[in-house]
Design a protein that fits this description.
TIM Barrel, five-stranded parallel sheet, two-stranded parallel sheet, 10 helices, globular
Amino acid sequence: MLCYHNVVAGTAEHLGGIGLHLPRHRFQMQMQWLAEHYAIVSLSEFVRRTAAGAPLRGIATITFDDAYQGVLEHALPVLRRLGLPATLFVVSEAAGDAQPFWWDHPAARAAAAAPRREHWLRGLRGDGPSILQELTSDAPVRLPPDYLPASWSALAAAARDGIGLGVHSATHRSLPELPDGDLERELTGSRRALEERAGVTASFFAYPYGRWDARIRAAVESAGFQAAFTLDYGLARGPHADLWTLPRVNVPASIHPAAFQAWCTGLNLRRPAFL
């Protein structure tokens, strides 16, 4: 199960969050290789097989966190050409925002050492406005359109065209640090927004920052989601896989083709650091 974030037109890797924005030509090569070596199924089919304990060898599925505009502009044409399904996880209150996600801010990129990230995620609960305020960098930032969240109209059109949409919370805060009331809003408010704005009843949830614990996992299951996805590195394996903590292979933008192929087979043992 692969997790991407964004796909962009060029190779300007100095823009945005480190490791998140994959140049289109690299994405196209990866998808071509996947199509030649794996049976790519929808996320719904992947979850169905996992729940049934069916064999998953040679099976893969493709997901994108955050629902960037670049995914719609650059990734979806590649997927359509190859006939590959995919699912986008939407941050409901970010959709259509003219400002980038906080981690794409130049000040956040410059200060993103590991201890600082832990403070942002735990102490500031992954809250974008609070993080940018601490960085004294809450002024508007201009990035290319494909680095911004996709609009609701574009997401609704993608859903009508067969792309799956899932929930990635309302505000992309770190859920384990939130009280129950805020957690309920992140789960149910975001799901309701997908229904109202994109006409989609979402069955799947992706944990913001990949962060979860037993309380969060139970809340996601109680909210009615059929499965939920972490950023814990690994391959989903049945028949005893927990459907609400399914791992994904997080694909960094600069990965070498040989390393990508190894990761897809589960050979990598080191999880990359991401915000």
